[in-house]
Amino acid sequence: MGAGYAGLTTARRLADAGIDVVVLEAADRVGGRVFSQVRASGVRLDHGGQWIGPTQRRFQALAAEFDCPTFPTWETGRHVEIRADGTRADYTGGAPESGPGIAEYERITALLDTLARTVDLERPWETPRFAEFDALSAEEFLRTETDDKDALQRLALAVQGVWCAEPREISFFHVLFYLASGGGYEQLMETSGCAQDSRLGDGADAVARALARSLGARIRLGEPVLSIRQTQTEVHVHTGGGTVVHAARAVVTVPPAAVERIAFDPPLPPARLGWVRHAPMGRVAKVHAVYEEPFWRDAGRSGIATLYGERPVGVVFDNSPQDASRGVLVAFVYGDRVDRWAAAPDAERRRAVLTCLSEVVGERAGEPIDYVEQIWPRTGWTIGGYECFLTPGGWTSHGRDGWRSPSGRVHWAGTETASVWNGYIDGAISSGERAAREVAAALGPVVRQPG
Ligand SMILES: Cc1cc2nc3c(=O)[nH]c(=O)nc-3n(C[C@H](O)[C@H](O)[C@H](O)COP(=O)(O)OP(=O)(O)OC[C@H]3O[C@@H](n4cnc5c(N)ncnc54)[C@H](O)[C@@H]3O)c2cc1C
After folding, report:
1. Are 411 and 2 in contact (CB under 8 A)?
2. N or C: which end of the chain has fewer CB within 10 A?
């Protein structure tokens, strides 16, 4: 169940193996946390996952197979860092090379990479110092390493930007696991050659839509799964639409934080339940402002910015279409900032974001032709984004049995169960491949009916 990248991949693999499959999706569209929309201005906006990087091989392969072209993220020109006290510093390249706290920040990120290289991605609990690191929050670890306030601010923004959480909330071991899973700090943070390298011209859900077409009537939209009952021989899945599906196996691909919305009979094993209770969703809003043209490019600005202090926005990118027929800025609001900002009235939220964009590229940013917010913690069946993160102690108490081991006839997929590119679209795809292998192995050889 779930027609995000994990569910669609699982279904396709099983269908290809000759196994009957049905995908029950709560929403009225496929793609899950990847959702693109063409606006009245003619621009296609990606409200959720959007970037694809060169080492995300499974996503790359599917995009190529379904003929979904990609184009490089716009990063030409001067980027800007706006500090808590309002001072500005322009820079080019991946990250600022000088500024308050930079040397200490770089020392610590190198240390994070060194520690991440020790992580066992298939059996994380076998990692040296596993329990010691999992007992700490990222904040606790970072504060034992440094008291440099500027470096800590930079690291906090990095945690917000990657996990949409605050350093006090997330297990330090989870930080290391995730860095290892994506190939290191630079891979996660940077643009060219890294996770933010490129976008898909037809939207990041173009591949999901193509997968869905290939699965046809096997996909049933508007079918929220409310309960899953296991018998000795079957799984009975009940939806809010009144559908009951009897199957030999079920694969649940909803984010861990959404698992508790489903009633399980018998109840989930304690390890699985413990795991999902230690895995809250990150909190993020993605806000797009559309302009007649990307006017900041004429001024030599890239549109890329990092913002500190009380501002709601943490990071800005130029999200214009490849042909630059319109100018688009995307602003990310994360963690505690999204909690505060989302509670404000509509007009105030809009004013706060446009004020930040004006600080980045000038006053023209205050008058977009279109403005749209996607506040993920308020988004129907998904609850948040980008993904679930583990709170301190979660891996130690429940990882071995609760992370992705099947619960009887119920198998688990979704990006949170991936070893490689955990949290990303690529990880969702690999999780679906693994779950399909588990199910196919459990069912044994399939006898194909003639005709
Ligand atoms: C704002 C944002 C930005 C991101 N940026 C990037 C990026 O640039 N690059 C990248 O690789 N990744 C990015 N991600 C992460 C990426 O989108 C996810 O890792 C990926 O889409 C997860 O896929 P999934 O199939 O595991 O889960 P989902 O996409 O969440 O799919 C789960 C599906 O289950 C459905 N569902 C939930 N409950 C039920 C129920 N009870 N019954 C039936 N169906 C149910 C949901 O509606 C959903 O369709 C981003 C995510 C967000 C939110």
Report:
1. no
2. C
